[in-house]
Amino acid sequence: MRRLRLVWQIYIPFLLIAGASVLALAGYASHSFRSFHMERSSADLEARGLLVEDALEPLLRGGDAAAVLAGARRLGARMGGLVQNSLGALLRGESASGHSSGAPASASPPPLGGSGITPLQARVTGIAQRAGIRVTVINSSGLVLADSHKNPALMDNHAGRPEIALALGGTIGRAVRFSKTLEQNMIYVAVPVVDDGTVIAVVRSSLPLTGVEKAAGQLVTRVAGGALAVALLLALASLLISRRVSRPLEDLREAADRFAHGEFAVRVDPSGSEEVAALALSMNRMAVELDERIRALAQ
Known about the structure:
Helices cover 58% and strands 13% of the residues. It is α+β, with helices and mostly antiparallel strands.
């Protein structure tokens, strides 16, 4: 079995350790950046959500109840009175269990289009466009009352969504997950609308993670390029260090071979580390003594 030269025994482990360290650092940097960007996006979305909630609060508490109920009445006959009852209960601060019509919580709000756009839906759509986010308004039973990106009549009951459940409990809810509606990963922040200590609705703001993922991808590319450059520099540096460590030992080996062939005039350069220099001086003295004894025997 062929033995590896000392330079490779030093170089290869050093290179592997350095490469693993660079990869670990690059992975940590990418993860940290993604986490930081997610936290910043969540905080920004929460701030926007609070502004949206503040803008919609008068409407949800009944500040524009007449206009909203009027829009609901226009569709009352077509929806069997569900829209009027659900929006009316919301604006009066009643819970889902207090609906006078006895409509189930999973019932749907009115379809969009034409005169079917309620003041709440119009307000939500306008705010979402100005804020650059998606806005969804959900009542206390999980019924979607308005959404800036989709017809609320086609949307499922949202009471089981993690962020909605937290908001219905009175705290700001946050979640990151795949949206079946928009078919992409989204970050959600749900803000409760409270009236007299009771959560009457939830205003949820959301943003796609496309920007975060794109920024993270760009960072990974940059980090990968930087890691590759660092790895190449480390490879070169480790090779030079390995050569510097192994070269004096190779010189000693060559000198020993020449001594074995009777070339006692050869001298080893006593450079390098203290141990290697001491060994070189010892070999030089040995060569001198052997040369003198052989000459004495020859006489």
